[in-house]
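Troubleshooting: if your tokenizer reports a length mismatch, compare your output against this known-good record of 129 residues.
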Amino acid sequence: MEPTFHHAGIATEDADALAALYRDTFGLTVAHTETFDGIYIVFLACGGSYFELLEPVDNDTVAGFLERQGRGVHHLALAVEDVESALYQARENGVEAIDDSPREGAWGHEVAFLHPRDTGGVLVEFVGH
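Known-good structure output:
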């Protein structure tokens, strides 16, 4: 089955302020919030997809991204039926996986990430559905 676009992860210093801007400017609504793995996360519904706003609370990965690159797109996520199979297929095509196997991610989803050096400079996340 072909993957579908799930969300764009956006790194920011203030997820609530960015959520308010997106609400007021684009009419988006908050679908889910949580603090997971040291990151305060706000999911905004946008059609059948989401914006995932990432604010580091105690997470060096997102904090480091903000230091190096500033606010902006952190990753793109594809919804797949089977994360393990998607990882296998990516490896078969020479793409380095950051995660050796699927793990629990935000909102209780099974996730795995692919290294941006092999995906055109974009950090790609598989999200199980």
